[in-house]
Amino acid sequence: MVEKRPSVSSTSRAVVNMLAVVLIFAGIAAIGGLIAAIAGGFEGWAIVAGVAVIALFTGGFLAVREGARRRSLESTQVVYAPDHTDDVFDIDPNTGKRTPHRE
Length: 103
Prior knowledge:
This protein is 62% helix and 11% strand. By secondary structure, it is mostly helical. A three-stranded antiparallel β-sheet has the order 1-2-3, with no helix packed on it. Keywords: Membrane, Transmembrane, Transmembrane helix. The chain crosses the membrane at residues 14-39, 45-64.
């Protein structure tokens, strides 16, 4: 039995998605540090934690947006023609035009 390995593009997509999750969770942890610094009266550390919160959430937002942009750019999808299951076509989602699939 041969196991199908994910392509490079799907692996890079998974890395971008995981990066977004890690950045957002790190931003949440930085909010905890910000609250602790403010409560403890450490103004300098509160500024550092505030900058970290902004940077982490911005990075997480941009990573999520990049993933959404990449998904929207996938313009062709491979479908099987209903009358012949051996013929594979690419369908342009914008125009609906069918073209024979090329590998």
